[in-house]
């Protein structure tokens, strides 16, 4: 969609006393290459009567919008884009709009809004709205000018009492005409003092995510980008209904949904799949072989090695058929991990999946891991939100891909070396197509999987244990690589055992476990 062709008329609604907002918008539209005409908004201070609306401000806002639609109709414009002076857009808005394909039947299009009922995905980046609020950036197509004007005048609102705000009147209309919205939002409101409400207001985070109505959106991000949502998230999100509907527009009985059962633990005959991502041969292959020997019927092994020319033993036998050239810090590592997951999921006996590297050692008996997973079926990864990362790891947010359609607040940071339950692993593989969203990131292996689960609506609070499965030591937040150990002192051995982790890295090929720790890990004491 070309914004200049699709919306031959663009208007800015701006109060004459808000020169500051006008100046900001002039710069914004110039950066986009848009010709936008300013229309002085009707000032509620000079309105003598609310004309049936809840307040003079609501009447003035609806009247201003109706005047724009009237001018668009008189000009014979095929469509009009209406923007308010608190609008915020991403710098690549034109590129993101170009990726949208509008259905031919569209009547109303929101470039951004709050969703108070779960919308339906109709195309990548586009949803059919059910209950959307806010009018900071929305468009109307010519055949619907008159109908939208009538709605804004309250002529279709049959409820007793004062008329509500313009966006609620439009939402009622959207039940009868084809109304769509860009999702994720391509426009949102600046947090500022509201001329309409008379106080400091803001319904959007800095990345454009709407705060109200968030309970109806889990999994929608993955669906809107061409992926898959966690089915339970979709079912739960479809239950709530917008708070502003009059009684006759609500279902006679609100549906009831049973909560999802806890993730299934390791059962009899189930296996733990070990997924090795290595550069070449494993540095401690014999130790792993001894580690698995205690419970060989509980283990499956898969591997993806960058260099397959000189591999030995179980690592050579475990190589998956798919091969992806990998490089440090790039998306290729995540794609290789996804290939490992896809291969391991083909065996129904595999219920849990552990990622490991060539410098990784087991530090607790396999029996301990089997015992834990037989009781607790959650995935295990220590995750952190962007807000937490910004506080404790300054600068790390710069690793996120700048051009990603995923809002920054949706990212989840974690270690590359994680444990996944089958449900989460299947959900990740179902969203392989979304890996392109991380293309320009630095070390996306440290946030891609967690972010995909978040986008798919997977509930971290109930289905993920916020804990590391693999111990690693970083000397500082600025380091690109963790510390490599050439030996294991008694103090380090104590730290490993106290960590609560089941594995540890990075250990040089010459490093070996102390006898006491080795005996414990291998079940000899």
Could you list some keywords that capture this structure?
525 residues; alpha/beta; Spore Coat Polysaccharide Biosynthesis Protein SpsA, Chain A; 2 domains; 4-stranded mixed beta sheet
In short:
With 525 residues, this protein is α/β, with parallel strands linked by helices.
Topology:
Blueprint: H1 3-6, E1 9-14, H2 19-32, E2 37-40, H3 56-75, E3 79-84, E4 87-88, H4 93-98, E5 108-110, E6 114-115, E7 120-123, E8 126-128, E9 132-133, E10 137-141, H5 145-152, H6 166-173, E11 179-182, E12 188-189, E13 192-193, E14 200-201, H7 220-224, H8 231-237, E15 271-278, H9 285-293, E16 299-305, H10 313-317, H11 331-344, E17 350-356, E18 361-362, H12 366-375, E19 379-380, H13 386-392, E20 419-421, H14 422-430, H15 448-455, H16 460-463, E21 464-465, E22 470-471, H17 490-498, E23 503-504, H18 515-521
Parallel strand pairs: 1-2, 1-3, 5-11, 15-16, 15-17, 19-21, 22-23
Antiparallel strand pairs: 3-10, 4-12, 5-10, 6-9, 7-8, 8-11, 13-14, 17-20, 18-23
């Amino acid at each position: 969609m070309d914004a200049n062709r699709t919306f031959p008329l663009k208007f800015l609604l701006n109060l004459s006393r808000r020169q500051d907002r006008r100046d900001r918008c002039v710069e914004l539209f110039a950066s986009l290459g848009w010709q936008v005409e300013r229309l002085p908004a009707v000032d509620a201070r000079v309105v003598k009567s609310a004309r049936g609306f809840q307040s003079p401000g609501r009447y003035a806002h609806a009247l201003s919008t109706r005047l724009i639609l009237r001018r668009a109709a008189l000009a014979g414009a095929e469509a009009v884009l209406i923007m308010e002076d608190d609008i915020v857009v991403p710098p690549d808005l034109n590129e993101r709009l170009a990726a949208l394909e509008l259905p031919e039947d569209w009547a109303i299009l929101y470039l951004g809004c709050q969703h108070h009922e779960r919308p339906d995905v109709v195309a990548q980046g586009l949803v059919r709205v059910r209950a959307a609020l806010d009018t900071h950036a929305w468009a109307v197509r010519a055949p619907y000018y008159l109908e939208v004007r009538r709605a804004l005048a309250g002529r279709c609102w049959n409820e007793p009492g004062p008329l509500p705000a313009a966006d609620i009147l439009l939402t009622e209309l959207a039940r009868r005409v084809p109304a769509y919205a860009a999702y994720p939002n391509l426009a949102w409101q600046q947090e500022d003092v509201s001329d309409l409400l008379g106080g400091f207001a803001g319904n959007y985070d800095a990345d454009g995510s709407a705060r109200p109505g968030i309970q109806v959106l889990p999994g929608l991000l993955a669906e809107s980008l061409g992926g898959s949502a966690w089915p339970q998230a979709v079912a739960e999100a479809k239950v709530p209904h917008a708070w502003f509907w009059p009684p006759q527009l609500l279902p006679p009985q609100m549906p009831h949904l049973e909560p999802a059962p806890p993730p299934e633990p390791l059962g009899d005959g189930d296996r733990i799949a070990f997924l090795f991502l290595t550069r070449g041969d494993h540095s401690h292959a014999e130790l792993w072989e001894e580690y698995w020997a205690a419970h060989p019927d509980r283990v499956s092994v898969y591997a993806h090695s960058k260099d397959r020319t000189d591999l030995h033993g179980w690592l050579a036998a475990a190589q998956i058929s798919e091969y992806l050239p990998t490089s440090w810090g790039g998306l290729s590592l995540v794609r290789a991990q996804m290939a490992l997951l896809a291969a391991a999921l083909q065996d129904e006996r595999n219920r849990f999946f552990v990622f490991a590297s060539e410098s990784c050692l087991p530090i607790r008996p396999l029996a301990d891991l089997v015992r834990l997973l037989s009781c607790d079926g959650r995935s295990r990864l220590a995750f952190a939100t962007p807000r937490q990362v910004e506080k404790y790891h300054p600068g790390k947010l710069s690793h996120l891909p700048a051009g990603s359609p995923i809002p920054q607040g949706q990212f989840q940071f974690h270690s590359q070396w994680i444990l996944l339950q089958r449900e989460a692993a299947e959900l990740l593989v179902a969203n392989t197509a979304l890996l392109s969203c991380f293309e320009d990131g630095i070390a996306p292996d440290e946030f891609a999987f967690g972010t995909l689960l978040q986008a798919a609506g997977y509930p971290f609070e109930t289905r993920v244990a916020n804990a590391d499965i693999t111990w690693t030591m970083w000397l500082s937040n600025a380091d690109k690589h963790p510390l490599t150990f050439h030996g294991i002192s008694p103090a380090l051995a104590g730290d490993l055992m106290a960590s609560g982790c089941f594995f540890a890295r990075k250990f040089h090929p010459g490093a070996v476990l102390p006898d006491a720790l080795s005996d414990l890990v291998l079940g000899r004491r």
